[in-house]
Specification:
This is Alpha-N-acetylneuraminide alpha-2,8-sialyltransferase. GO terms for molecular function: alpha-N-acetylneuraminate alpha-2,8-sialyltransferase activity. Pathway: Protein modification; protein glycosylation; Lipid metabolism; sphingolipid metabolism; Sphingolipid metabolism. This protein is an alpha/beta fold and about 375 residues long. It has a single domain, classed as Glycosyl transferase family 29 (sialyltransferase cstii, chain A, Alpha-Beta Complex), CATH 3.90.1480.20. The chain contains 14 helices and 13 strands. It has a seven-stranded parallel sheet, sandwiched between helices. A two-stranded antiparallel sheet has the order 1-2. A hairpin with a 6-residue loop joins β3 and β4. The chain is globular and about 70 Å long. Bound molecules: 2-acetamido-2-deoxy-beta-D-glucopyranose (3 copies). One 2-acetamido-2-deoxy-beta-D-glucopyranose binds next to loops.
Length: about 375
């Protein structure tokens, strides 16, 4: 009896083993380098970085082919006419059919210029790169994509960031005086997730003044909202649009095109990023790689390196962690790191110096992320 029982158990185990082996054969486990390996590699490379025009051109072409950032990153009157069905990219089975009301809030491509700034912080040269021209567009020169990672704290990257021609930031980060030295104060495009409108500004159902006052920090930049990623995000996004356009604000509201977000997601998935959703930062990096000649990224460091048991904060301004499995930030970082190594974009070196400091501490951990989801 006992023997028979064991035999049954054995065969069950054997069957399980075969199943598991078969599973791994069909779906090989994607091995991510460990945090330690990454940090060591980052250190090994040190300060050396050389721009690789071949890599830059290659990625611009790849991204233009898959996702066409210049034409598609926002919904416009041209790419989303009345009657067009916009499928939400962050959930299944929901769509929005463009109607008179939504059509009226979409920008016209001709209005979509990129305001450049040069020289003194306030000298905005309103030279406009039209998205629609007959001649091939010259790419923007220097772009900065600023994540919100705690690694930016005490980084003194502010001046460097401010010198870029086009500065993108994630999810309405605070730009108050205390952070000026570390993150700068100029912005040309800032993303805003509908959830922040809900959580911090009562969904804009009551007073709108706090929201408008808060937005003053972004001057006359674009505010980029994923209005068609999750169904509950559409109404708050429209309210944000009306709040801004009914005021004397100089901001331009843009709604992310769900087709663009979906295609960018596929692009990175094919390159090993297995997150359910990309982080806002990687969407902006994709946009920048498609439109700019030189891309520098700041504040992307999804590792928490403990110094005397003290982790770096999650954001440069707070330490609130996002949902655990939503993003695959280390995977995303590996992608950025590959691009950095090949000279296609630059992960800013101030960060590396800082890691150097932290390397003296032996125990660091993989925790948290550097920017939030675009659709939350
Ligand atoms: C430059 O980029 C191309 C395309 O990504 C790559 O094949 C090449 O190895 C890179 N060159 C260097 C020196 O890294
Ligand atoms: C950025 O900060 C500098 C120094 O405080 C200030 O002179 C400048 O007006 C600020 N620029 C913006 C766009 O807020
Ligand atoms: C918008 O820009 C104009 C011209 O630069 C400026 O005078 C005005 O104060 C700005 N409005 C707001 C709300 O910042």
């Amino acid at each position: 009896m006992l023997v028979r029982c064991c035999r049954v158990k054995l065969s069950v185990w054997a069957a399980l083993c075969v199943l598991v082996i078969g599973w791994f054969y069909v779906f090989p486990v994607y091995r991510l380098p460990s945090d330690k390996e990454i940090v060591e590699e980052v250190l090994g490379l040190g300060e050396a970085w050389k721009k690789n025009q071949t890599g830059i051109d290659l990625y611009r072409n790849l991204l233009t082919e898959c996702c066409n950032p210049r034409w598609m990153f926002a919904v416009t009157k041209e790419n989303a006419p009345i009657g067009k069905v916009l499928w939400y990219d962050g959930e299944y089975y929901y769509s929005h059919t463009v109607n008179d009301e939504t059509y009226s809030v979409f920008v016209q491509e001709a209005e979509l210029g990129v305001r450049r700034s040069r020289g003194t912080p306030d000298a905005y040269l309103h030279s406009v790169y039209r998205l629609r021209t007959t001649t091939p567009l010259k790419p923007l020169k220097k772009c900065a994509v600023v994540g919100n990672g705690g690694i930016l704290r005490h980084s003194k990257c502010g001046r460097d960031i401010n010198q870029a021609d086009f500065i993108m930031r994630c999810n309405l980060p605070p730009l108050t005086k205390e952070y000026l030295e570390d993150v700068g104060n100029k912005t040309h495009l800032v993303t805003a997730n509908p959830s922040i409108i809900e959580k911090r500004f009562q969904g804009l159902l009551w007073s709108r003044k706090a929201f408008l006052d808060y937005l003053k920090a972004y001057g006359s930049s674009f505010v980029y909202m994923p209005a068609f990623s999750m169904k509950p995000g559409t109404d708050p996004s429209l309210r944000a649009y009306y709040t801004v356009t009914d005021s004397s604000s100089n901001l331009t509201m843009l709604f992310a095109n769900p087709d663009f977000l979906r295609n960018v997601g596929k692009f990175w998935k094919a390159r090993g990023v297995h997150a359910k959703r990309l982080s806002t930062g990687l969407f902006l990096v994709s946009l920048a790689l498609g439109m700019c000649d030189e891309v520098t990224v700041y504040g992307f460091w999804p590792f928490s390196i403990a110094l005397d048991g003290q982790p770096i904060s999650h954001h440069y301004y707070d330490n609130i962690l996002p949902g655990k499995w939503f993003h695959a930030m280390p995977e995303e970082f590996v992608q950025l790191w590959h691009l950095h190594k090949s000279g296609t974009l630059r992960v800013k070196k101030q960060m590396i110096k800082k890691i150097d400091l932290f390397m003296h501490a032996a125990n660091y951990k993989f925790v948290g992320t550097s920017s939030d989801a675009i659709s939350e």
